[in-house]
Amino acid sequence: KLHSDLDKGVGTVKYTLSGDGAGTVFTIDETTGDIHAIRSLDREEKPFYTLRAQAVDVDTKKPLEPESEFIIKVQDINDNEPKFLDGPYVASVPEMSPVGAYVLQVKATDADDPTYGNSARVVYSILQGQPYFSIDPKTGVIRTALPNMDREVKEQYQVLIQAKDMGGQLGGLAGTTTVNITLTDVNDNPPRFPKSIFHLKVPETSHVGSAIGRIRAVDPDFGKNAEIEYNIVPGDGGNLFDITTDEYTQEGVIKLKKPLDFETKKAYTFKVEASNLHLDHRFHSVGPFKDTATVKINVLDMDEPPVFSKPMYTMEVYEDTPVGTIIGAVTAQDLDAGSSSVRYFMDWKNDVDSYFTIDATEGTIATNELLDRESTAQYNFSIIASKVSNPLLTSKVNVIINVLDVNEFPPEISVPYETSVCENAKPGQVIQIITAADKDLSPAGQRFSFKLSSEASNKPNFTVHDYRNNTAGIETRRNGYSRRQQELYFLPIVIEDSSYPVQSSTNTLTIRVCRCDSDGTIQSCNVEAIFLPVGLSTGALIAILLCIVILLVIVVLYVALRRQKKKDTLMTSKEDIRDNVIHYDDEGGGEEDTQAFDIGALRNPKVIEDNKIRRDIKPDTLRFTRHRPPAEDNTDIRDFINQRLQENDVDPSAPPYDSLATYAYEGNGSVAESLSSIDSLTTEADQDYDYLSDWGPRFKILADMFGEESYNPDKVT
């Protein structure tokens, strides 16, 4: 209620209200100032309201007093029950836990004012789940209430928890939640076989490694606590079988380790032990966590294939054995109760099998072709045996036939076929160790002997020392060898084997003489090295060769200058006409003057006929050679030329101007005919030699001789 001191109760004052909830939650009587709540209030929604009130004049609308502010506080009542905001709950606890083992803590929330009364004071209790669990009334902690709760008996528990306010007093509000509690497994149970004896029936034809049966031990535990390991207890028949654990079903899988035979043994008995892999030490006092059962296996008789007496057969035969010779036999038997006959045949896979045949009834193996050990030393094939009563039942065995050697090849020296010896070798020095090889193969091993051939045993150069271990040494017999005298030695060596009949061969060993240092290290075995001085380096040898080449060049130049000087002296002589005769091999400009005269005309006579003009000078008038009838042979001139030619041939100081190469280009036998006036076809009287003066200075002497003087045969001797 609001009231102003200026209000006289005559209706001149008006009250107004503003602020939180004015007009919606609260209203005011304008005349009396009474404030009323027009709807229910919820403290949990809004605990207080702030309002402003004012008194104004009814007529003037002016405030009579300043505006005043006041707070309306909502007083709490217990109108909210406790709530479990996190429920429902899920928890777990190991089985066999002791009393008071912690499980879970729950918490309820009350929206009422905790500072006013007991509206928000919560107390916890269990409505469902006793006597297995208990809860602390104040903290809400749930604990186990019974000892040794067994998961295998009951695994899941649902507990109903109540939270009540007002401290749990009568009239208080309450809320509930559920807690699902699971007992987790521990290994508190050993495996147990459901029965003490297991019976299995196994065919005798079962393969080694195959599963022949399963047994199972039961463990009520869960997960890794239920994993079981099976073992066969050593005893009767246990060595023929093995057992493993199927990781999915935890069954014991019995497998066969060795083949079964009904005719040998019809039944086996052994014990199997089942135990846990993961043990819990808290439960050791309960007893051993394992169990034992007996397994009896009955072997079933089956129709089996024949069985060979050996797993593999090995035979031997000499090469070149006649076709049809029996070299061995295989044997197979039917071990079943009603024994059946056996038939044999070869397992044809390749052409190798055609070398042998087998008797279908007796199983004897014979040769079908001639054998050669050097071609094939061993044969490997298979023999198949089948029952006559049931041909589909077969068995197979491998047969190895070794071909024995017959001594038919002589031994030969092994590489190397060439060796070396130092020039400074001493007598008795071993220069090479040799061995031998033989294509034959003796079962006892070959023994080879070495010796020199009869024609080489008397030579004092080398000898062979047989070490009697299939090796021999080549020893020197001289004190030093000379490459200048003999570079290569050929040593014939006779090698014999020890087989029958004895085979031998003569092998030639080439021995090369080499230059070595004092330690016996080979320095050179080349032929060219014989003529090289010892101790000179490559640079020194090159320098010596260069000096020799320079000296040869100087000598050649000197000889050429000497020849040119003598030639000029003879050509300039005018006194002795006879001496000029020897220069007729130098017609024209001479052999060296290839520019003054076309020497090609000497090789082609057509040039002489077609072109008679000089090429070295330009003549004043064209001159032509006058052809005259051939003259008679002048024996005096011919004798003179032969005499002078013989003198110059035997004279070592005379220059060789009369060369055979020059004469090959002219003369009676050549295509160009003779270029000399001597022994010409025309006579001197009819010959005109005036054209010689037009040929240049080199023919001046001839022009003077034949142009100015008349020919007088008496002056020629």
From TrEMBL:
Membrane topology of this protein: Single-pass type I membrane protein
TM ranges: 530-561
MF (Gene Ontology): beta-catenin binding; cadherin binding; calcium ion binding
GO BP term (any one): cell morphogenesis
SMART domains assigned: CA (SM00112)
PROSITE patterns reported in the protein's UniProt record: CADHERIN_1 (PS00232), CADHERIN_2 (PS50268)
Keywords: Calcium, Cell adhesion, Cell membrane, Cleavage on pair of basic residues, Glycoprotein, Membrane, Metal-binding, Phosphoprotein, Repeat, Signal, Transmembrane, Transmembrane helix
Protein name per UniProt: Cadherin-12
